[in-house]
Amino acid sequence: MSFWLTKTLAEMTPDEWESLCDGCGKCCLNKLIDDETDELYYTNAACKLLSDKDCSCIHYEKRFEFVPQCTAVTANNIGELDWLPDSCAYRRLYKGRPLPAWHPLLTGSKNAMHEVGMSVKDKTLSETKVRDLEDHIVLWPLKDLD
């Protein structure tokens, strides 16, 4: 049986935990929070380490050296990371939702995720090329398919 159906997030091995990440890249997008309403906004400005072509971190193992403010998603902090999109596998499982049909653990590759538009593939700019984040607010990261 599939481990995510039988184990809690806290019971997963490090390899199982890492495999839950669908690799969509949405968590690597710069976000803004409205000071007055606390509303969260996603932008198409991505972390300088994110590859727009395959939605992966070019220095994943050493990402904290390059980007100290990068957040590690863990079983201990998943409940606090309300900026993760609803489509995120960690967030879905934390909230008692199943993995979506396009998830790489179910399909065997990232292709289905890219085909249904659930990743940042070919949709971002490097944060190094963006001057005003407010000019780069986008709605597509909020899309969630069941």
TrEMBL record:
Q: What is this protein called?
A: UPF0260 protein C8J23_16111
Its family? Belongs to the UPF0260 family.
Upper lineage: Bacteria, Pseudomonadati, Pseudomonadota, Gammaproteobacteria, Alteromonadales
UniProt xrefs under PANTHER family: UPF0260 PROTEIN YCGN
Which Pfam families did the record assign? CxxCxxCC
